[in-house]
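Practice problem 4.
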């Protein structure tokens, strides 16, 4: 595997016309950064290393897995710990992308985002995909990066709202035991079930072994992971069949099913009728 190129200085942050740029910055032991101020929102995710992000009146210490928000017009610079040169993802988001609700920028306050292993892994995966799409280019690069950046912002705002003590940007990682981590995962699964792939991926996303994940999931839901995910998917499918005119195929794919035969089989096993029969029964009021 090729080692990443190391840099002695902060990379240029020149945003493209669509307003989102993702940089991967691997610092050498000689890394230094001059004070920098910008008109965009900057999200800094720590892949490896330790150090501080400074503003003129505050210092935020970071370590691996941390996510830091640097708002527009805040002078900032990064300094690594002497024995731990950092590797970072830096996501820059143009303020104009928030024109639909400018108040959102105000909620993206300077400092560390209260986090956990689930959010950290989620953010890292999102930024990795964004880097890939950015490098690949193509006709969809703009919409892909803008959509992904807005999703990152959504996760940050949700996490700050749900963190103990409210929106506190000074807070370090929230200290929670495995049961609390699992409770958070189960709550998020209610709306993110369509992203679920395998139980191994789910366990890894919140930093648990498969065995611990299985035990805690059963304890909190009274069900296995696969049965619970499919129940959530079919419940959503029932809602969509009853409330929208989407085709059955569109409903199936929206609910996370990659083929219609599996969707039909799961739907009938839970509802006792086919998706078409269910829609007709709702339409007729029977």
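Answer key:
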């Amino acid at each position: 595997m090729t080692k990443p190129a190391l840099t002695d200085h902060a990379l240029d942050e020149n945003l493209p016309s669509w307003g989102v740029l993702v940089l991967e910055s691997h610092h050498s032991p000689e890394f230094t950064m001059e004070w920098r101020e910008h008109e965009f929102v900057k999200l800094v995710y720590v892949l490896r290393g330790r150090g501080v992000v400074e503003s003129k009146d505050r210092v935020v210490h970071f370590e691996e897995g941390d996510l830091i928000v640097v708002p527009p017009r805040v002078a900032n610079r990064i300094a690594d710990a002497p024995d731990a040169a950092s590797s970072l993802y830096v996501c820059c988001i143009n303020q104009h992308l928030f024109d639909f609700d400018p108040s959102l920028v105000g909620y993206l306050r300077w400092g560390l985002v209260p986090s956990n292993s689930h959010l950290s892994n989620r953010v890292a995966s999102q930024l990795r995909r964004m880097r890939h799409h950015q490098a690949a280019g193509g006709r969809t690069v703009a919409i892909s990066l803008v959509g992904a950046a807005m999703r990152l912002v959504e996760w940050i705002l949700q996490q700050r709202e749900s963190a103990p003590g409210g929106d506190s940007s000074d807070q370090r990682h929230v200290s929670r035991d495995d049961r609390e981590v699992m409770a958070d995962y189960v709550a998020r699964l209610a709306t993110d079930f369509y992203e679920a792939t395998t139980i191994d991926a789910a366990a890894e996303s919140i930093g648990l072994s498969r065995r611990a994940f299985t035990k805690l999931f059963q304890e909190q839901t009274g069900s296995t992971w696969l049965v619970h995910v499919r129940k959530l998917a079919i419940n959503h499918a029932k809602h969509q069949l009853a409330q929208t005119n989407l085709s059955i195929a569109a409903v199936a794919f929206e609910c996370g099913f990659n083929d219609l035969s599996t969707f039909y089989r799961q739907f009938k096993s839970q509802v006792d009728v086919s998706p078409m029969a269910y829609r007709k029964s709702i339409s007729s009021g029977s």
